[in-house]
Amino acid sequence: MSIIECVPNFSEGRRPDVIERIVASIATNSRVTVLGAECDPDHNRAVVTFIGPPEEVADAAFRAAARAAELIDLNHHVGAHPRMGATDVIPFVPLRDATMEQCIGLADSVASRIARELGIPVYLYEHAARSAERRNLADLRRGGFERLRDVIATDPARMPDFGPAIIHPTAGATAVGARHILVAFNINLATTDVAVAKRIARAVRGSSGGLRYVKALGLALPSRGIVQVSMNLTNIETTPIHRVFDLVRLEAERFGVGIIGGELIGLAPNRAIADTFDHVLRMENFSEPKILEYWIEHYYRQGTPRAEPMPAASLPAVTEQRFEPIVSIGTPDGGRIPTLAAQLALTIGHAACLGPSADPEDLEQTLEIQRQLEAINPTLAQRVSEEAQSREAIDETDWLPRDTDADRLAHAAAIEEAGLLGATVAFRTAQDAHAALELLVELSDSVRTADVATAAQLALTAIRTARYRLIELLSGNEDEDARDYRSRITELLENAEVLAMQIELRFTVGQ
Questions:
Q1: Which of 119, 146, 178 corresponds to the end of one domain?
Q2: How far is residue 367's CA from residue 361's CA, in Å, rounded to a whole number?
Q3: Does residue 37 contact residue 67 with C-beta atoms inside 8 Å?
Q4: Is 242 in the active site?
Q5: Which domain holds residue 40?
């Protein structure tokens, strides 16, 4: 059975009875489960999370929007968070055995029903958007209820996807969309100066040159006498919570402001919590199968716990802060060393882009290099999985029979095939490291620090050790593919040595 998550946001955070009645309208279907409802009086906003089968979730979302339209009047609504509707946003998120296409279909049907039956104009956003200009929710909501009321009928760019080109007099307008899992994460600061929160938000959010996949606003929280950096993290695999927290903390320190704490709004996937746990405690042997619920889930999925050792392919992927699980002292694994070196090169190079030595006049170029370095990281994570699979293929050749001449020929062919698979991974890792090295050469034009020079040497080491691995795996193999790989990786290394020397000279001559 497909499971869909829906996380509607309502423009009410000060009247619990109103939210209770909206939640009750959702829970009338026994196949829909409400997982949580959170209100904030300063934002004057509530976030409700529920899951269930697609059609039931769609019907519950409509019922909630209908009840909110009865109970909330935006003419009397004031809050820190931007809003344009009583039901401000309804996102559908694919979970188990569900697809984004299903969620897009649900968004279309619910948007049409809200417009038709409630007379509320509706905009489609994110993956459900019908044009690139409407993907970003912030663009649709800019100016809020009051501005949209004035321009919806005259500005073609603000015409709704469904419903009348006139704002609903009390319920405003609603955005309905389909998106991947999002983590809503806020950080509260020990100051009353909202300008500080806004400057930190600008430094953090991706649209103004900060972290990719981060949307951020600086808001005042009058009831608490503090300010907040309110954020949506749209891809926690690439930009995890701990990296966002670290950057906000560094920016806050520039203004002499302390962090009171963080807030998780709604729910977060296990991966987000596990990554943060791993980063903060610097675990040496941590991976997702260390979490009890991982095995409980497996038990209910498969019907019986798995007793055999965890396969190599399920080992944790590399992230910018996870190096320990990739190689273990005392049990060296040459296949993982190139990836580890490349990962270290990316991390140090990425940090150098943020360093105090960066030239302000080259900020735009430096931020672009930073984004490109970050984009290589998921590729390296894939190399870890590919290398594990190639190593497993090599190990399996040990179990092949070698009793007859035919067995021995088959065994030799299997070894050659497995070796070629491993060599392919080594070569691709070398290419990834070379791409990072080219970016580091660009970075060294404006940032000439030990970090950049060190990152370059690590990238060079990744290529060199990948070549060692490739030569070892292709030992005795003289077919055309093997010769081509040896030739190409040698050429790659020679070119990398020239690039690394350029950085070396720029650093040493400039000191």
A1: 178
A2: 12
A3: no
A4: no
A5: 4-178
Query: Does 261 lie in the same domain as 398?
Result: no
378: domain CATH number is 1.20.120.680
Confidence (pLDDT) at 70: 97
| Catalytic residue from among 81, 242, 279, 350 | 81
d(CA 156, CA 86): 23
Average pLDDT estimate for 231-240 = 89
Q: Is residue 332 part of a domain?
A: yes
As beta bridge partners, residue 36 has 49
- Predicted pLDDT at 331: 35
Please tell me the predicted confidence (pLDDT) of residue 450: 87
> Which stretches of 282-336 are DSSP H helices?
292-302
Is the same domain home to 162 and 197?
no
Is 239 within a domain? yes
Predicted confidence (pLDDT) per residue in 43-87, tens digit: 999 999 999 999 999 999 999 999 999 999 999 999 999 999 999
Tell me which long-range contacts 193-196 makes (C-beta under 8 A, separation of at least 24).
193/227, 193/257, 194/218, 194/219, 194/220, 194/227, 196/227, 196/252, 196/255, 196/257
Banded pLDDT at 17 (limits 50, 70, 90): very high
Q: How many domains does the chain have?
A: 3
